[in-house]
Amino acid sequence: MKRAVLFDLDGVLVDSHHAQLATLAGFATSALGQRVTIADLPSWAATTPRERVLAELGHVGTIDQDSWDAATATATLTAEPFPLVTAALSALRAAGLATGIVTLRNRRRVGWLLPPDVLDLLDAVVCYEDAAPKPAPDGLLLALDKLGVAPAHAMFVGDMPSDMHAARAAGVTPIGAGWGFSSPTALTRAGASIALPQTAHLADALLSLISLE
């Protein structure tokens, strides 16, 4: 029986909190023609759609994608995988599980965030352009279809309530990543079967949960 563990990207595999804020500040500085620092951003900027954040800062109209990409490419140089993530992915695959990510990032930006050695440990990558975004279940179901794994035999590790909702809608076991953008309490409230507090012993925790199924 083939099994899989799927992951969100930002806040789960990659510590991109600072990079997301730096992207917003960099784009706003260019678009508004004035200095905007991370300290100038609203406190909710990291977990809110960029359009709302930029509107709060005074930006009107559409977002120029070339300018956004330029800000993103620079900012993501500060992002790094969370400690022990590479080891966890290696351990899961060594145990015979398929792995993958389902992210709101587009495919081009995934390569800016994840180093090649981590990308090589992923059997499926589903991006923004591939399926309807979470909380819709489409991306998770597409990833599982690529992997040949039934939803009942899969887990999805995410750090946002929308991740938990998507997993529930897909029939996948939702696992909260309490080290990301939401607290373990918020993730449990959103439907997580369990919320893990940190990446330490991540693979052991996931393998233990699978053995209980």
Q: Summary?
A:
The protein folds into two domains: 4-15 and 80-212, Rossmann fold (3-Layer(aba) Sandwich); 17-78. The chain has ten helices and eight strands.
Which helices and strands occur, and which strands form pairs?
Blueprint: E1 4-7, E2 14-15, H1 17-32, H2 50-57, H3 65-75, E3 80-81, H4 85-94, E4 98-102, H5 107-113, H6 116-119, E5 124-126, H7 138-147, E6 154-158, H8 161-170, E7 173-177, H9 184-189, E8 194-196, H10 202-212
Parallel strand pairs: 1-4, 1-6, 4-5, 6-7, 7-8
Antiparallel strand pairs: 2-3
Helix pairs in contact: 1-3, 4-10
The profile of the biggest β sheet is: 6 strands, parallel
Give the averaged pLDDT, no decimals.
95
DSSP helical segment count = 10
**CATH evolutionary superfamily of the largest domain:** HAD superfamily/HAD-like
Query: Could you name the ranges where pLDDT drops below 50 across 5 or more consecutive residues?
Result: none
| Pattern of helices and strands | EEHHHEHEHHEHEHEHEH
Distance between the termini: 12 Å
How would you characterize this protein structure?
The protein is of the alpha/beta class. It folds into 2 domains: 4-15 and 80-212, Rossmann fold (3-Layer(aba) Sandwich); 17-78. 44% of the residues lie in helices and 14% in strands. The chain is built from 10 helices and 8 strands. The strands form 2 sheets. The protein has a 6-stranded parallel β-sheet with strand order 5-4-1-6-7-8, with helices on both faces. A two-stranded antiparallel sheet has the order 2-3. The mean pLDDT is 95.
